[in-house]
Write a structure and sequence with these properties.
The protein is α/β, with parallel strands linked by helices and 237 residues long. Helix content is 29%, strand content 30%. The strands form four sheets. A five-stranded parallel β-sheet has the order 2-1-3-4-5, with helices on both faces.
């Protein structure tokens, strides 16, 4: 598994590399010294896993994750245990407290392998249901698997992301997001909405040849007449 280590302390990076040496499935493809360096290397090297320090000069590890379109698997590493709760709130694979103990590292890598086994081996050029994204809204942040997102709704220069009982806002355009999402899972219902086809519960005819779609979360979304024919085809109606 291609792995990037992100930590501003050189000795911490070297120690982790040494601890990872017995784990032959972990292929270390690079090191990054801060969030900006990590952003460039993640986009260039496409790691599948990152060991990420939280407190770094300038931007934090959380800031880095917020800047990424597609988030690799993440194991946080830090000397400060007060970040633990927040790390688990965003659903990281694990949280390792420095100095890292070999048995805890082995446990964390075990979680990576379990997560990997659950995912499809298909090569994806777009964001599909098995991918996860990092969403930050104010002080709250989450890792969200796209299959759990039932609706994206445009609101000015922001997008409201519907998952569970949460509806955080992210600063992106719906058009740009639409280009990244796998159209086998997500459907552009209208100028303002992208829906997850797996969450469709009920479909009714609507005005002017359109459709009214109800999602399992309770939201009712109009599908424009222009999109209705394609929607019917995709849903095999």
């Amino acid at each position: 598994m291609k792995t990037l280590i992100v930590d501003d302390e050189r000795l911490a990076r070297k120690e982790l590399i040494s601890l990872l040496e017995p784990h032959k499935k972990i292929e270390i493809i690079g090191e990054a010294v801060d969030a900006d360096d990590a952003f460039e290397k993640i986009n260039e090297l496409k790691p599948e896993l990152i060991f990420l320090d939280i407190q770094m000069p300038g931007k934090t590890g959380f800031d880095l994750l917020e800047s990424l379109d597609q988030v690799p698997k993440v194991i946080f590493t830090t000397a400060y245990d007060e970040f633990a709760l927040k790390a688990f709130e965003v659903n990281a694979l694990d949280y390792l407290l420095k100095p890292i103990q070999p048995e805890r590292l082995e446990e964390a890598i075990g979680k990576v392998q379990v997560s990997e086994a659950k995912e499809s081996n298909e090569e994806k050029k777009s964001l599909g249901k098995n991918d996860q994204v990092f969403v930050k809204d104010g002080d709250k942040c989450w890792f969200v698997k796209l299959e759990d997102v039932r609706l994206f709704e445009s609101d000015g220069n922001y997008i409201k992301v519907y998952f569970g009982t949460n509806k955080p806002m992210i600063h992106k355009s719906l058009n740009a997001l639409d280009e990244r999402l796998d159209d086998r899972t997500f459907f552009r219902a209208s100028r303002k909405h992208i829906i997850n086809l797996g969450w469709v519960e009920k479909i009714d005819t609507w005005f002017n040849g359109g459709l009214l779609v109800q999602l399992r979360g309770g939201e009712k979304i109009e599908v424009s007449r222009r999109q209705a024919a394609r929607f019917k085809e995709m849903m095999s109606l």
